[in-house]
Design a protein that fits this description.
Chain lengths: 441, 362
């Protein structure tokens, strides 16, 4: 018995000593890393080279706006020009990577600007400094001097895309309800602006209450709800000509909360009739309405999935306000929200992987996201009143309304990264609510 | 010894007395340095100044007159030297010439026709018969110095499984293979008793099958010429040759020495992860990538960093995840990863898996 135990013991010792050797001595050294750092990626964008006389100022303006766009995402951090070792004086000159490595610039954007009359040309390159190679290839945009902001946004979108592998959202616009005046006598107008608050324009006057504008998939039309007839009605507004048409008659009920289908040919909306609210689908040019939900409950705030196959909406059919998903033509709905509190205003992400929502729990409002099956719920914000999320065209950022407490409370637009970071207020003169993000232009 | 002390004391006393009394009464005044001054008149002073003035440059330089040389023509006449008298050698008697050799027996070889065919070494049709002696004075096998109680079969060599999967090779049936002739060796001998050299009986005849003379090897058979197809065959042959040349030195060799400790591995992992920037909101955060690269002895990346595997996400997300991983490796190498040089064989080739799952779920 003792001999047997000794044999086993010696065998185990032999295995214990021999196994690591065998593993370590065969093949390359293998390591797994599961912890990284979450920090903005440092980059440098020296002022674009002014290649013609009179283009000095616009080249500086374009460079600064590109930096604002990139740094505004929270994913990038600009290395100031004062820290640069070398300068870019010729767009065609080779890049001295060592100089940019020395200041830890992981990405470098070089460009040139030329102006001829009213025409503006911008060209640029993006470099992976530590790899010592260009990301993608050089690109050139042509436009007018007046449209320099759009050109800068387009360059920033391209840079963002090349570094992150995802589409950008800088050359996009937001339609929202502009709010002015005290809370007791607040004037509301439809307004449109660039994503960063520039180029603000009003689409309607303040003679009637307007609610919940929604961009079409192509960005040329806006759906919204107006009380100008005394009842809430859904209108379709052409952004270019600012002409509008009534989408539906109320038929004795109220219609509201409209949203386009992904192909832009139909609209989902809610219709209240006899104390019961259901979801309908109607063609953009009118026609027969298709009822998608039924039952003695309030079903509203519908939103299509990007592929148009499913619809997420809110309903109180279970006794409290929760989120449900059903097919594009109605049918049985599946509840996806099971947390505490009430869920509303769901919006399907353009990526298709997440659903943003408003959550009210214990007297606080939150903007959150969850998987389309309701899993991995994450709350991104918390305040006295946060509501009405809308997705950036790349599905990376959410814009929403935040209203402060009290009679002097004001509504403002905020944006937050889908990771919950980089919460910031959108630059805007006056208040705003109900934002809707356009697709990339 | 006391005498020495006395002498020393008297001498010192005398010396001290001379210093005290001999030099004390000498009161010679210290020597004064006297400089003679003479009074001169103004004319004399001006004359002195003029003498110290630098000479003014002047171009009025007299040309030196070349004296006429009185050339005397040397006498170039020559006269013949008188002949040197040399001693005449003593007279010797003239030797008789050698007798002419008789060449009548030598005959020139007759010219033979040279054929164009190269000479061929004739191959014997059969092996040369060797007469094997019945006995040989040399011993065939030497008795083993150890006693093996029982004959034991040689154990099979250890089989190790290599990590790298290699494609099996097919035997080349096209060409003839020349197998090496391996001489059979005598089996390991074992005896039941210890036999030392002293016990050997050199005189005892031992039967041996050893040949008494070497047999010349057969000539190599002429290889049959393979039908070649010009360029293709040449390229194939070149590739085969290159492959054969490259395969030998690139055979993976198992690193020797102790492997990296867990602490050394952790240090490398921490170094890289400090530069791994994860964008948890991006699709790239759904991708786990494995990258491979090689380091030089200074711990710096050699060559390209290659993507070995990517799991999760689409192609664009995988590309972004790879770029992030590549940046992490390149950024944090700085002047080279700090790894023990003596274990270079263990960290020359590295594969790192970047898995962002845990970060994404926070």
């Amino acid at each position: 018995m003792t001999r047997l135990l000794a044999t086993i013991l010696i065998g185990l010792m032999g295995l214990g000593m021999a196994a690591p050797e065998a593993v370590a001595q065969n093949g390359p050294l293998r390591i797994e890393i599961t912890e990284g750092v979450i920090e903005p990626l440092p980059y440098a964008v020296p002022d674009f080279v002014a290649e013609t006389q009179g283009s000095n100022q616009v080249s500086k303006d374009i460079s600064r706006l590109i930096a604002e766009d990139l740094s505004g995402t929270g994913l990038f951090r600009e290395i100031p020009a004062s820290a640069h070792i070398s300068s870019i004086t010729n767009f065609g000159s080779p890049v001295q990577f060592a100089d940019w490595k020395a200041i830890n610039a992981q990405a470098l954007i070089t460009g040139g600007v030329s102006v001829s009359g009213n025409s503006l040309e911008v060209k640029f390159r993006v470099w992976d400094v530590f790899a010592g190679q260009e990301l993608g290839s050089g690109l050139r945009f042509k436009g007018t001097v007046d449209g320099w902001r759009r050109m800068a946004h387009k360059v920033a979108d391209e840079v963002y895309s090349r570094i992150t592998g995802e589409g950008g959202y800088f050359d996009s616009r937001v339609v929202f309800v502009s709010e002015t005046g005290p809370k007791s006598d607040r004037k509301k107008r439809l307004a449109i602006m660039d994503y960063d608050g520039a180029n603000l324009q009003y689409l309607t006057d303040s003679s009637a209450i307007v609610l919940a504008p929604r961009f079409s998939p192509t960005g040329d039309k806006v759906l919204y709800t107006s009380y100008e007839t005394g009842f809430p009605e859904v209108f379709v507004l052409d952004v270019g000509s600012v002409r509008r048409n009534v989408l539906s008659t109320n038929n004795g009920g109220m219609s509201f909360s409209p949203r386009f289908s992904p192909d832009g040919k139909s609209v989902l909306l809610s219709v209240e009739s006899g104390g019961n609210t259901d979801i309908y689908k109607v063609g953009i040019n009118g026609g027969q309405r298709q009822r998608l939900t039924s039952g003695a409950s309030i079903d509203t705030a519908p939103s299509f999935s990007p592929d148009g196959s499913r619809i997420v909406f809110e309903s109180d059919r279970s006794g409290t306000q929760q989120l449900y998903v059903m097919g594009a033509n109605g049918g049985e709905a599946t509840r996806i929200s099971f947390g505490q509190g009430r869920y509303g205003t769901p919006v399907w992400s353009p990526r298709g992987d997440l659903i943003a929502f408003t959550k009210q729990n214990k007297g606080r409002f939150h903007i959150g996201v969850m998987r389309t099956d309701g899993s991995e719920e994450r709350l991104l914000t918390a305040s006295f009143l946060d509501e009405g999320p809308t997705w950036a065209p790349n599905g990376r950022v959410i814009m929403f309304t935040r209203e402060t407490r009290g009679t002097d409370g004001v509504s403002a637009l905020y944006s937050v990264d889908v990771s919950g970071r980089n919460l910031k207020r959108v630059k805007l003169n006056g208040g705003g609510s109900d934002p809707s993000w356009s697709p990339l232009q | 010894m006391h005498i020495g002390h006395y002498i020393s004391g008297v001498a010192h006393t005398g010396l001290i007395g001379w210093v005290l009394f001999g030099g004390a009464f000498q009161s010679e005044p210290p020597p004064l340095e006297v400089t003679g001054v003479s009074v001169i008149t103004a004319e004399e002073y001006q004359a002195v100044l003029r003498a110290q003035e630098a000479p003014a440059p002047s171009t009025d330089i007299a040309v030196p007159i070349i004296p006429e040389a009185e050339l005397e023509t040397p006498d170039l006449s020559s006269a013949t030297d008188a002949p040197v008298e040399t001693p005449s050698p003593p007279s010797t008697e003239a030797a008789e010439p050698d007798a002419t050799p008789d060449l009548s027996d030598l005959t020139a070889p007759e010219p033979q026709d040279v054929t164009e065919e190269a000479p061929v070494l004739l191959t014997p049709e059969v092996d040369t018969a060797v007469v094997v002696p019945d006995v040989s004075p040399r011993p065939v096998v030497r008795p083993a110095p150890r006693v093996a109680p029982q004959p034991v079969a040689q154990p099979e060599p250890d089989v190790t499984i290599d990590d790298e999967v290699r494609e099996s090779t097919e035997p080349d049936t096209a060409g003839e293979t020349q197998e090496e002739v391996v001489e059979e060796t005598a089996p390991e001998a074992a005896s039941t008793e210890i036999a030392t050299e002293a016990n050997e009986d050199d005189d005892a005849p031992v039967a041996s099958a050893a040949p008494t003379r070497s047999v010349r090897p057969r000539t190599r058979p002429v290889a049959r010429a393979e039908p070649s197809t010009g360029t293709d065959a040449a390229v194939a042959a070149a590739l085969a040759e290159a492959g054969a040349e490259e395969s030998t030195p690139n055979q993976p060799t198992a690193p020797s020495g102790p492997p990296l400790t867990s602490g050394e591995k952790d240090a490398l992992r921490v170094s890289v992860q400090n530069c791994w920037v994860v964008d948890v909101g991006s699709r790239a955060a759904d991708v786990t990538v494995t990258v491979g690269f090689s380091l030089d002895r200074d711990g710096r990346v050699q060559g390209d960093i290659r993507l070995i595997n990517a799991e999760g996400g689409d192609e664009a997300a995988a590309r972004t995840a790879f770029q992030s991983a590549r940046r992490a490796v390149l950024r944090c190498q700085k002047t080279g990863y700090e790894l023990p040089v003596e274990k270079y064989d263990h960290w020359r080739d590295i594969e790192i898996t970047f898995n962002p799952d845990a970060m994404r779920r926070r």
